[in-house]
Design brief:
The chain contains eight helices and nine strands. With 230 residues, it is an alpha/beta fold. Helix 1 crosses helix 4 and helix 3 packs across helix 4.
Length: 230
């Protein structure tokens, strides 16, 4: 178990990806625009923040089509998801930036033998190349993505799966009461809380006033680096 500077204890930690480990939201936004703008479905960055952030690609495309009163069949949806995945791979070739302190915190927790997972609404094909770029692929015991669930956050399924898989990989049992999710959106916090996990919210994407469902809120994971084994 580790003790964080604010006094919180954790036996396991589950990280969201976009908006927590890396600042990829502008890159996802750019990828969506390259696909949706030619269809006449472009939306502003503020609209993305207000209506789309926290969605997986499936629900983001559904929202965009619904906003224009257009039906979206499953075949067209799957084609759009594949197109967006390829576009995203091209966008990230210019590089990505981890949030301050995040990679160091992940490494510290890993070195302390704390079980770690990722629970994200992104596709696995979006996540894997970035973990390689950041040299932290080896730190995570399990990764749950949009490929593994039928419904995106705030549905708690993703966190239920992440916790179960993480627990199955450990020799020493731990509980939900000592497992923390690290999130940046109200939808993500709601998903983790419905799965009965504690939540550390980081104000990377929303102001603190919109993250009050979390167990505690911090402005940066840099402030949690001074962890101690307990």
């Amino acid at each position: 178990m580790v003790l964080f500077p604010n006094g919180m204890r954790a036996e396991a930690v589950i990280f969201d990806f976009d908006g927590i480990i890396v600042d990829t939201e502008p890159l996802h936004y750019k990828s969506f625009q390259q696909i949706l703008a030619p269809l006449g479905f472009a939306f502003t960055w503020q609209e993305y923040l207000d209506n789309y952030i926290g969605f997986d690609d499936r629900d983001a495309f559904r929202e965009a089509f619904a906003a224009h009163n257009r039906e979206l069949g499953n075949t067209e949806l799957q084609a759009l998801i594949s197109q967006k995945a390829l576009t995203f791979q091209n966008v990230i070739k210019d590089g990505v930036s981890a949030y301050p302190g995040t990679v160091e915190l992940i490494r510290k927790l890993h070195d302390a033998c704390i079980p770690l997972a990722i629970c994200s609404g992104a596709l696995k094909s979006d996540i894997d190349p970035i973990l390689v770029m950041l040299n932290i692929t080896d730190c995570f015991d399990t990764i749950v993505t949009a490929d593994d669930v039928a419904t995106s956050k705030p549905d708690p399924e993703c966190y239920e799966i992440a916790f179960s898989k993480l627990l199955d990989r450990q020799f020493k049992p731990f509980t939900k009461e000592t497992t923390f999710a690290i999130e940046d959106t109200p939808a993500g916090i709601s998903a983790a809380r419905q799965a009965n996990l504690n939540v550390c919210a980081v104000t990377n994407s929303y102001e603190a006033g919109k993250l009050t469902e979390a167990t505690f809120i911090t402005s940066s994971l840099e402030l949690l680096l001074d962890i101690r084994l307990n």
